[in-house]
Design brief:
It is built from six helices and four strands, in the order ααβαβαβαβα. The protein is of the alpha/beta class and 122 residues long.
Length: 122
């Protein structure tokens, strides 16, 4: 059965809790947290990113998050809380669902970069 983007987003939003920038800041302050910007490099170059965030475009996420991949990024650790964001929240929701499917348990979607602006230092 074919799946539409709408259905994929509904499933992702059901699996990955949406949090506010204030909740994200609290999690970051507690430590053992990875913040991931899943936008493409030109988007990040144009607007910047959250201080301390790792930029991994959504298309490379599986490769960076899998410890058995030759492209694994050591910042990805299943014991960490993972907070994702993108431009408007769709890609970060899908990325969160992907990480959950890969065995990451504490995964949250803060939504879009604009949701952070003014709440968390860039």
């Amino acid at each position: 059965m074919a799946t539409s983007v709408k259905q994929m987003l509904e499933a992702a939003n059901a699996a990955v809790p949406k949090i506010t920038s204030e909740q994200a800041a609290e999690m970051i302050n507690k430590g053992n947290t990875l913040v991931v910007d899943v936008r493409d490099a030109p988007e990040v170059a144009a607007s910047g990113k959250i201080a301390g965030a790792v930029n991994v475009s959504r298309g490379m996420l599986e490769f960076r998050a899998d410890p058995e991949s030759p492209y694994h990024d050591k910042a990805f650790d299943k014991s960490k809380t993972v907070i994702l964001y993108c431009a408007s929240g769709g890609r970060s929701a899908l990325a969160g669902k992907l990480l959950k499917d890969m065995g990451y348990e504490n995964v949250y979607n803060v939504g879009g970069f604009k949701d952070w602006t003014g709440s968390v230092e860039k």
